């Protein structure tokens, strides 16, 4: 790339998965009729006052815990004052002086090495309303106004676009797995801003930084940082400088574009919010919240590998929360986890994707799944046959054996029947038999193939091989 | 007729015996208001009041306040009824919800008869910043009735109704009560829910009762106080505020800060206070003059904190969701700048501008946070004094009510009018004004009684003992004949 | 102490407060605002206090609200008080640029 060292910090806003808003009891929902999820508090009506949603506090504590942050035990809120049509009170209630979490970190893998990305602070605040621009006018929908957010701010400790992407992927995974947010960047429930500056050497002072706002996907975060580093490098290479500024990533141009040059520091006129007294975070509450945190992704990946699942598959499973949870429910069972993971990631996931279902929407109970894995494992059911019966396995309540019988994919398990078929094949292929006897291993594979062809795969291959070998000798 | 001149016990008896109906009281209240012509109201809610009175006819008279008319300051939201804050900004604003105190009044079967005049957004000390013109003082209609709850004070003093609600951010209940010779209580911060009170300075605002006497004041506080889930700052305390009324005050210890009798106060008022001290001593209380730190800084702290908070609280009036909006704006900037230039009056604009400035950039540290630090020490100073004394007393105002035509061009004047009442808001403690006599022009002089947090009942105890002993004629319409 | 603010100072605070001012008003504010700012300078004369701040005279800490849905407004009510609206939306003249905040 360039001969500069980049310094990157990332700020992420995440909407919390609560039933109601942070300061009012109207519904926290997405994609509903405009202005149907509001009350007088969300609209900033004169005389209204905020109340504080307990679940917001719990989820923020949970986030602070999974991000390895210290938790502040006594905190207050602050008002951030700025006029904007999406800001109903023209001040936003946030935490400026006493963020709930601070001094945390997230660990990422960079080229096989672990690196800690340090979290400066994380705080609780309210979301703004949604504005849509239509020609000469802007339309305001207050459904989002007052949706609870946490903002997570890293130290400027990343140096490549790749690190920023890895950090975001890790952050997203942690928040998803601990049920803090659904982290859908396309719906805006997770939004990222990146601060980028570059310099020649580590010993140089930091240069001017540019902030790239509201980037719509993790891959665009990487791309926009890359483009921004190139842009700044070109400026410095030409012996020029630039002013601190806010930029955005333009999807069409696939590049960052200028939004505005920053004035001499934004004047948000912060002061402590008098309408909300001190909030006390008790040790009991912290303990209770910690107990609700499920096994986190890193631990899952390790555990899966211990059980014999390949690393690449362990990673794939963790990418799908509901599949991973499904598997976690089986961790104490004595089954072949390699088979189980192949099943889940192969045919089952294909079915789920095709039908837009979650595994929990299917009829595959724990018991039926164990049965299925064991049947696959001892070859009672072949993968070819599985494909034929999969829909029924996932849509009906019948036992696997019953389904196999109904669909005529039962393996011929009767010795005599198999023997008859094998005798017939041996009789029909004297050349191959001769080859085998002459020591050509390939011949037995050919014969075996003929057996499978004859039985349309409906025979236990291991059993068939044993009998074939016996008959040939 | 004139039922409203009778004692509350007598009115209640008449209602119970069905000799009168609530509608008679409503009718009388409107006759009073229309004949006294004090510009005390911004909106009369006749239709709603008569309807409510009718509804009450079938109900059992279950409390002393049943069926009684009440006036509500126009910065308290009433569902379906214009709530203007005496501002052009809200002169078309009809709230879609009731303030908690309004719900409580309705549940107590009291009848709201109108919304009272006030300083615009409660900013002022004479109610002359009202977009609808100032209310008049019934003792001398050329004079102010004080502010910001000037309309409520005026209508109570004139005996139009028995009950009114005011709000007090820096003396806005006690100071007009003093100018008009009535009883006004600023309760402990958190005693009364602020939900639905259009905020001026959130850390100082408190709703309180304004009445002609102490007992009725305590009764109204019983109705409006109590915990509210909708206001995180509201306290979880319930009690009967009349319970100590009539009890002996012998042995009670009272402090008068020297600042309260310094040369900033009219000699005539100090003299009246000293007469009152003698009465208190006669009742068995002891009175000491003490030095208290920070009292003389209270106005400065108030200017910084109240203007700072107000600049944020009033930011929501932007012409987008409700209220006044500039017509045919050129662009979004014009919606903000134009609406706010047209909608707010001079006093409000000044305070918002100065408040914004005091919070901006480095000024937040230089002024606002410094003020919060001193405020903490000032509260501590009161906590300390209440270790040794039951009450702090003093004059409520430095002068009696002045002329409506007095100049308004000094922006500091409205703050200085409240120099003696502001410390109470700073400390969040309760304070009550009661009349103690008249000046040479027969304008009322008021005294304030201050106690520690949540000791309103004790304040009523002392105030009622003194009220009984002083036995003043406080009806400006009485014309000399004393029929009490 | 100065008796007047500069024009620029008045325009700056008017900008912070989002209030349009006329030429005539600027002149008045130069004096009036300065008077109030001189008043608050007195805070620097206060001595002997500690750093502890009082945000508000709260009598207790925050009670938390259960995460349970309550009543919401009909969208028709939401737009009823709004000076400009379109369909279910509250409307303003087009806003250029992105939000400063969250």
What is this structure, in a nutshell?
The complex is a heterotrimer of chains A (473), B (484) and C (102). Chain A is an alpha+beta fold and 473 residues long. Chain A contains 15 helices and 17 strands.
General description of the model:
The complex is a heterotrimer of chains A (about 475), B (about 475) and C (about 100). Chain A is of the alpha+beta class and about 475 residues long. Chain A contains 15 helices and 17 strands. Chain A has helices at about 55-65, 160-175, 220-235, 285-290, 295-305, 310-320, 320-330, 335-355, 365-375, 385-395, 400-405, 415-430, 430-435, 440-455, 460-470, and strands at about 5-15, 50-55, 70, 75, 80, 90-95, 100-110, 115-125, 130-135, 135-140, 150-155, 190-200, 210-215, 245-250, 255-260, 270, 280. In chain A, the strands form four sheets. A nine-stranded mixed sheet of chain A has the order 3-7-8-11-1-12-13-14-15. Chain A has a three-stranded antiparallel sheet with strand order 6-5-16, with no helix packed on it. A two-stranded antiparallel sheet of chain A has the order 4-17. In chain A, helix 12 packs across helix 15 and helix 13 runs antiparallel to helix 14. Chain B has a domain at about 5-245 and about 430-470: Amidase signature (AS) domain (Amidase signature (AS) enzymes), CATH 3.90.1300.10. Helices cover about 35% and strands about 15% of the residues of chain B. Chain B contains 15 helices and 13 strands. An eleven-stranded mixed sheet of chain B has the order 1-3-2-6-8-7-12-13-11-9-10, sandwiched between helices. Chain B has a two-stranded antiparallel sheet with strand order 4-5. In chain B, strand 9 (about 255), helix 8 (about 265-280) and strand 10 (about 285-290) form a beta-alpha-beta unit. The two termini of chain B are about 15 Å apart. Chain C is an alpha+beta fold and about 100 residues long. Chain C has a domain at about 5-45: Histone, subunit A (Orthogonal Bundle). In chain C, helix 1 packs across helix 2. The two termini of chain C are about 40 Å apart. The mean pLDDT of chain C is about 90. Classes of the chains: A alpha+beta (about 475), B alpha/beta (about 475), C alpha+beta (about 100). Chains in contact: A-B, A-C, B-C. At the B-C interface, helix 9, helix 10, helix 11 and helix 12 of B face helix 1, helix 2 and strand 3 of C.
């Amino acid at each position: 790339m360039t001969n500069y060292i980049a310094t990157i910090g990332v700020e992420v806003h995440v909407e919390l998965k609560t039933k109601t808003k942070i300061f009012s009891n109207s519904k926290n929902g997405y994609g509903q009729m405009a202005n149907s999820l509001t009350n007088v508090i969300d609209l900033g009506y004169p005389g209204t006052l905020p109340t504080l949603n307990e679940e917001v506090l719990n989820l923020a504590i949970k986030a602070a815990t999974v991000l390895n942050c210290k938790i502040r035990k006594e905190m207050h809120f602050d008002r951030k004052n700025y006029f904007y049509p999406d800001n109903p009170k023209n001040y936003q209630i946030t935490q400026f002086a006493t963020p709930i979490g601070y001094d945390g970190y997230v660990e990422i893998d960079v080229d096989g090495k672990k690196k800690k990305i340090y979290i400066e602070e994380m705080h609780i605040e309210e979301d703004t309303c949604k504005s849509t621009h239509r020609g000469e006018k802007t339309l305001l929908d207050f459904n989002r106004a007052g949706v609870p957010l946490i903002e997570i701010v890293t130290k400027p400790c990343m140096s490549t676009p790749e690190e920023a992407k890895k950090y975001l992927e890790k952050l997203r995974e942690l928040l998803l797995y601990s049920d803090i947010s659904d982290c859908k960047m396309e719906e805006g429930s997770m939004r990222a801003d990146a601060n980028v500056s570059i310099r020649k050497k580590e010993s140089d002072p930091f240069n001017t930084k540019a902030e790239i706002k509201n980037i719509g996907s993790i891959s665009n975060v990487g791309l926009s940082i890359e483009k921004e580093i190139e842009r700044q490098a070109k400026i410095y290479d030409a012996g020029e400088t630039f002013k601190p500024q806010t930029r955005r990533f333009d999807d069409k141009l696939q590049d960052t574009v200028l939004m505005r040059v920053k004035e001499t520091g934004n004047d948000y006129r912060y002061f402590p919010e008098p309408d909300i007294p001190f909030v006390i975070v008790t040790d009991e509450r912290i303990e209770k919240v910690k107990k609700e945190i499920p096994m986190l992704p890193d631990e899952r990946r390790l555990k899966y590998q211990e059980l014999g699942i390949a690393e690449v598959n362990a990673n794939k499973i963790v990418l799908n929360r509901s599949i991973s949870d499904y598997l976690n429910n089986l961790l104490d069972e004595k089954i072949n986890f390699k088979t189980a993971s192949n099943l889940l990631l192969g045919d089952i996931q294909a079915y789920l994707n095709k039908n837009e279902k979650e595994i929990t929407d299917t009829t595959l109970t724990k018991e039926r799944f164990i049965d299925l894995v064991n049947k696959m494992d001892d070859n009672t059911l072949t993968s070819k046959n599985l494909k034929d019966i999969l829909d029924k396995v996932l849509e009906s309540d019948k036992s696997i054996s019953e389904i196999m019988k109904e669909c005529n994919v039962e393996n011929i398990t009767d010795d005599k029947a198999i023997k008859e078929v094998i005798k017939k094949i041996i009789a029909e292929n004297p050349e191959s038999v001769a080859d085998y006897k002459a020591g050509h291993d390939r011949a037995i594979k050919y014969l075996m193939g003929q057996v499978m062809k004859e039985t349309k795969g409906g025979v236990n291959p291991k059993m068939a091989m044993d009998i074939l070998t016996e008959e040939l000798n | 007729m004139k039922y409203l001149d009778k004692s509350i016990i007598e009115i209640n008896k008449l209602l119970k015996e069905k000799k009168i109906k609530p509608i008679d009281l409503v009718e009388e209240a409107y006759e009073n208001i229309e004949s006294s012509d004090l510009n005390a109201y911004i909106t009369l809610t006749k239709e709603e009041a008569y309807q409510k009175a009718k509804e009450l006819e079938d109900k059992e008279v279950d409390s002393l306040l049943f069926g009684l008319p009440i006036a509500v300051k126009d910065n308290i939201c009433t569902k379906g009824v214009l709530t203007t804050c005496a501002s052009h900004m809200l002169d078309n604003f009809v709230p879609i919800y009731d303030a908690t105190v309004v719900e409580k009044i309705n549940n107590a079967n009291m009848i709201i008869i109108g919304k009272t005049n006030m300083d615009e957004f409660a900013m002022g000390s004479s109610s002359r910043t009202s977009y609808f013109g100032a209310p008049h003082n019934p003792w001398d209609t050329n004079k102010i009735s004080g502010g910001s709850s000037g309309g409520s004070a005026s209508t109570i003093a004139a005996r139009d109704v028995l009950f009114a609600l005011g709000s007090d951010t820096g003396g806005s209940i006690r100071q007009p009560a003093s100018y008009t010779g009535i009883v006004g209580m600023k309760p402990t911060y958190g005693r009364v829910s602020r939900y639905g009170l259009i905020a001026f300075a959130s850390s100082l605002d408190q709703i309180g009762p304004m009445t002609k006497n102490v007992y009725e004041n305590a009764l109204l506080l019983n109705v409006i106080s109590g915990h509210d889930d909708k206001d995180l700052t509201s306290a979880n305390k319930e009690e009967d505020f009349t319970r100590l009324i009539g009890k002996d005050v012998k042995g009670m210890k009272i402090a008068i800060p020297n600042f309260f009798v310094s040369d900033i106060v009219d000699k005539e008022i100090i003299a009246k206070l000293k007469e009152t001290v003698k009465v208190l001593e006669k009742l068995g209380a002891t009175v000491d003059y003490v030095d208290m730190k920070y009292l003389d800084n209270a106005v400065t702290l108030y200017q910084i904190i109240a203007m700072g908070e107000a600049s944020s609280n009033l930011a929501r009036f932007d012409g987008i969701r409700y209220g006044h909006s500039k017509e045919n704006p050129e662009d979004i900037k014009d919606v903000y700048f134009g609406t706010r230039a047209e909608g707010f009056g001079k006093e409000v604009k000044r305070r918002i501008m100065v408040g914004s400035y005091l919070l901006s950039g480095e000024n937040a540290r230089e002024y606002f946070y410094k003020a919060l630090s001193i405020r903490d020490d000032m509260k501590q100073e009161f906590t300390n004094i209440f270790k040794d004394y039951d009450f702090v007393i003093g004059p409520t105002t430095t002068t009696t009510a002045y002329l409506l035509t007095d100049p308004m061009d000094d922006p500091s004047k409205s703050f200085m009018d409240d120099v003696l009442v502001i410390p109470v808001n700073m400390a969040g403690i309760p304070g009550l004004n009661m009349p103690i006599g008249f000046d040479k022009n027969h304008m009322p002089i008021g005294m304030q009684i201050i106690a520690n947090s949540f000791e309103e009942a004790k304040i009523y105890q002392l105030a009622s003992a003194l009220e009984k002993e002083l036995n003043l004629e406080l009806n400006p319409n009485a014309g000399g004949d004393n029929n009490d | 102490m100065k008796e007047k603010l500069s024009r620029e100072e008045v325009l700056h605070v008017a900008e912070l407060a989002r209030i349009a001012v006329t030429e005539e008003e600027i002149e008045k504010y130069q004096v009036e605002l300065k008077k109030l700012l001189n008043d608050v300078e007195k805070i620097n004369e206060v001595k002997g206090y500690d750093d502890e701040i009082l945000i508000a005279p709260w009598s207790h800490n925050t009670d938390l609200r259960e995460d349970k849905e309550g009543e919401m407004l009909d969208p028709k009510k939401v737009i009823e008080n709004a000076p400009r609206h379109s369909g279910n939306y509250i409307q303003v003249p087009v806003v250029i640029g992105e939000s400063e905040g969250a």
